[in-house]
Amino acid sequence: MRAAKHMTGNLFLVGPMGAGKTTVGRALARHLQKTFIDADQELERHTGVRIPVIFELEGEEGFRRREADLLRELVSRRDIVLATGGGAVLREENRAALAANGIVIYLKASVDDLWARTRHDRNRPLLQTADPRAKLAELLQQRDPLYREIADIVVTSGQQSVHQVVREIEQKLAALAAAPTAHANTHG
C-alpha cells in the first residue's frame, strides 16, 4: 500500500492554522517540481468569495461540506503538494481520501508559535472570539489526534526556517520510500 501511495507523487500537508502549510507547501512543491495547491485558496476561487463570507452565510457546517466536495476532486489529481485547511481532518471522509491518495505530512507547531503567526490575521473565522489564543489551544487539542491518525510523517514547524522544514520532510520522504513495508508513521 505504501509503495502505491508513493507512486502517485501526491503530498498532502495537514495541521493547524498557522503551522505553515501554505508556505512550506509552496517551497516543497517548487523544490520537488510538483504542482502546489492551497485548498482554501482553491475554495475561494471556486466560490468567488472569501472563506469568512462562507462562514458568515453558511456557517461552519456549510463551509465543511464545500471543503469536502473540493477535497474529493483535489486528491484525485497527480503529482501535487496540497495544503489543506486546518479543519479538513474533522470529517472522516476527508481523512480517508487524504490517507488513500498520497503521503500525509502533519506540520506540527506549538500553540505559542501558532498564536504568533495568526494573531493579526482577520481572515480566520474561528479565531474571531473573545480569547483567540484559547480557541487555538482548544482546536489543537481536538484536532491533533486526527492529524496523527492519518499522518505518514510528522514534522515540527516551530522556529526553524522553511528551508529546514522542507529538508526534514525530504529526508523523511526518502526514509519512507526506502522502507515501504515498514510502519508508515515517521514521527519527528
Describe the protein in words:
With 188 residues, the chain is α/β, with parallel strands linked by helices. It has a single domain (2-178), classed as P-loop containing nucleotide triphosphate hydrolases (Rossmann fold, 3-Layer(aba) Sandwich). The protein is 56% helix and 12% strand. The chain is built from eight helices and five strands, in the order αβαβααβαβααβα. The chain has helices at residues 2-8, 21-32, 39-47, 51-74, 92-101, 111-118, 132-150, 162-178, and strands spanning 11-14, 35-38, 80-83, 103-108, 153-156. It has a five-stranded parallel beta sheet with strand order 2-3-1-4-5, with helices on both faces. The radius of gyration is 16 Å and the shape is globular. The protein starts with a helix and ends in a 10-residue tail after the last helix. The relative contact order is 0.20. The model is unreliable at 1-8 and 182-188 (pLDDT under 50).
Blueprint of the fold:
Elements: H1 2-8, E1 11-14, H2 21-32, E2 35-38, H3 39-47, H4 51-74, E3 80-83, H5 92-101, E4 103-108, H6 111-118, H7 132-150, E5 153-156, H8 162-178
Parallel strand pairs: 1-3, 1-4, 2-3, 4-5
Helix pairs in contact: 2-8, 3-4, 6-7
Keywords: Amino-acid biosynthesis, Aromatic amino acid biosynthesis, ATP-binding, Cytoplasm, Kinase, Magnesium, Metal-binding, Nucleotide-binding, Transferase
Subunit structure: Monomer.
Pfam families: SKI
